[in-house]
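Case study 2.
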Amino acid sequence: MSPLSSARRQAGQAALLLSLSILVWLSVVGVGVVEIGIADVRRVTYEGRRQEALAAAESALDRATLRLRANLSRIRGVEAGDWMEPGSERWRVCAPCSATDPGDYETFGAPWTRYGPIPDLFASQEPDVQRATASYIARSERPGEALPGWSTLHVIAEGRSADGSALARLRRSYQLRPLLWRIPRAPVEVTAAATITGGFSIVTDDVVPPQSVLPDADALSLLFGPAASDVGALRASARMLDDCTTLGPGSRGLLWIVGECVVSTGTAIGSTETPVVLVVESGTVHVQTPIDLYGILALRSSPAGTTGLVQANGPSALHGALVADRELGVIAEDFSVRYDPVVLQRLLQLAGQLSEVPGSWTDHR
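Prediction:
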């Protein structure tokens, strides 16, 4: 074989090897590009599912919070439909307890109690009804109860993607403040000397003074604390009434009336178990028929300087305390204020405002 033929053959082999190398390199690059593309598709798909799960969890969290705000007066109540109704078993002691899986994100020990999954957060036709749940978790001292001493309440929600491959868990914490800052220390508390006429009487024991005059303080501020400085927010937490005609034994919580309060039902308002805080602003309380009112009657002046007037045409009793931030006038045939510590202590269980704990939002995905 001639040297020229040998050289050509070697050059051809080198070209073949080079072509094969390039082909292999292109194949490797092509496979890598495909794998990167597949990974991107998977990542985008999972991110979509993750966002789907997060949206479901956020929806459940928001609805659970709205449910909480709408039931502030029932959280610590023990009557039918209340959250601590005996035998309802809404709150269950946890040991440990979390909204879903105690092993992988949040563990609560024996002092904690859980209400959940919260029923009926979504309508049956809504897509999130099968994909999102929420629970309330709070400290407890006894089974069936929650929030002793107004501790922090946690709202925990879980959401899943439609195919179940992605999971999101959220927690938001709230401080549930009591409605009353303090209970009256006397059957009658006023910010000016009271003018009492007629058959007005005060019933108390030897420990509690019959009357407390507060010349340098606002009686409503002492009753509601800092919340009294924001009357709008205080009204928002109350049940606003046009008049007193609907008051009766089923009345409960904070009731607020602007104007005249004429009571003609001839029955009880509230009860020993479910007393009321009745605020009458810029109006007269006129009791036309004998009644028993359980709780606190608070008279608010607007503008300042007006006289709070209570008129009673028959034998009636206020079981609790009378508070006024204006001069108090009572015209009554037979009206008594009976200081009742049991009723007043029950009023301390009423929920006031719900405040989100700053920085409490946590996101587990």
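The longest helix spans residues 3-70.
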